[in-house]
TrEMBL record:
Pathway: Amino-acid biosynthesis; L-histidine biosynthesis; L-histidine from 5-phospho-alpha-D-ribose 1-diphosphate: step 8/9. It catalyses: L-histidinol phosphate + H2O = L-histidinol + phosphate. It comes from Immersiella caudata. This is Histidinol-phosphatase. It is an enzyme of class 3 (hydrolase). Its EC number is 3.1.3.15. GO terms for cellular component: cytoplasm. Keywords: Amino-acid biosynthesis, Histidine biosynthesis, Hydrolase. PANTHER family: HISTIDINOL PHOSPHATASE-RELATED (PTHR21039), HISTIDINOL-PHOSPHATASE (PTHR21039:SF0). One of its GO terms (molecular function) is histidinol-phosphatase activity. Residues 5-220 form the PHP domain. Gene3D superfamilies: Metal-dependent hydrolases (3.20.20.140). The keyword Hydrolase applies.
Length: 314
């Protein structure tokens, strides 16, 4: 039973992703997905939070469009959830941001309260309000803002992530070690080189484990050129040792990225001794009433067996 818990569309993330949402869902069905989490980015609240491609036609116009677009996404997702129910189980969520905690915490709680929303992915894309996964120049700016050292940046990243998981307790923590992406040494042995940073990473894992959250094994790291998915092997082994659960995500941004690197991701988990990944089944719900989420383990063999790529199975 193949699935993803993290996906985006060009329809609701224009400039950031490609293709309309229904086209992406239909492609996912065609390659064997049985569950799909729709998790467009949440609205942001300041012009300073916009990415370069969002500054046209004007920053204010873009900012003004974000909340109405989110409302439109939820309506359209609920329509597709019903329309495609005989072919695929659709979960509706969003991916959160963590820029100004005093402002974003109540906003995220408000967005989550919508009865159509099943879950959200707790992600961190900024450190000191500077994007750390956009390009090398912004990554360098974030280093400068954190005391001129990459070590300081990684330390700040995991402190801000800890604030996020403590405040929000997301059911899924997105790309736990996204900070690796723009690093000149993404495969560094943090435990050996930066032991105080490793202690913060373990602290964060323990907090997620404490409240029962999941980490996603996110294969977008592989399609972006990293050797291992998010999280990397050191973190993943620590998480497995804690008895933590993984869900599985392609973090796709259009049809072309659906299930990208899934075979490698599944092999990676098997090499860690992981035998199943986790998703949810919606139970009940309806007009103005939230569905309950029933946890569902999927064996990796079953997952692989249902996924059809290039005319065959993975």
């Amino acid at each position: 039973m193949a699935f993803t818990m993290h996906s985006h569309s060009g329809q609701f993330c224009p400039g950031h992703a490609k293709d309309d949402l229904e086209t992406i869902i239909q492609h996912a069905i065609s390659i064997g997905y049985k569950t799909m989490g729709l998790t467009e980015h949440m609205p942001r609240t300041s012009i300073d939070d916009l990415y370069p491609e969002e500054l046209l036609p004007t920053p204010q116009e873009t900012l003004n469009s974000l909340s109405p677009r989110h409302t439109s996404f939820l309506s359209h997702a609920a329509h597709l959830q019903s329309k495609c129910s005989s072919q695929i189980h659709i979960l509706i969520g969003f991916e959160s941001e963590w820029l100004r905690p005093a402002e974003y915490t109540p906003l995220i709680h408000s967005l989550t309260s919508d009865p159509r929303v099943d879950y959200f992915i707790g992600s961190l894309h900024h450190v000191s309000s500077i994007p750390i996964d956009y390009d090398k120049a912004m990554y360098a700016s974030a280093i400068t803002a954190c005391g001129e050292t990459e070590r300081g940046l990684w330390s700040r990243y995991y402190d801000e992530q800890f604030e996020m998981v403590k405040a929000l307790q997301p059911k899924i923590v997105g790309h736990f070690d996204l900070i690796r992406l723009m690093s000149e040494n993404p495969g560094r042995d943090v435990k050996r080189e930066w032991p105080e940073v490793w202690e913060k990473m373990v602290r964060n894992l323990m907090e997620v484990r404490r409240y029962g959250g999941w980490l996603e094994c996110n294969t977008s790291a592989l399609r972006k050129g990293l050797e291992e998915p998010y999280p990397g092997r050191g973190v993943a082994k620590e998480w497995v040792g804690m008895g933590g659960r993984f869900t599985f995500s392609d973090d796709s941004h259009g049809v072309a990225q659906v299930a990208t690197c899934y075979a490698r991701g599944l092999e990676y988990l098997e090499g860690l001794g992981v035998s199943e990944v986790w998703t949810w089944e919606r139970v009940g719900g309806g007009e103005g009433v939230k569905a309950e989420l029933k946890e569902k383990g999927v064996g990796i063999g079953e997952f692989r067996g249902s996924l059809r790529l290039d005319g065959g199975h993975v």
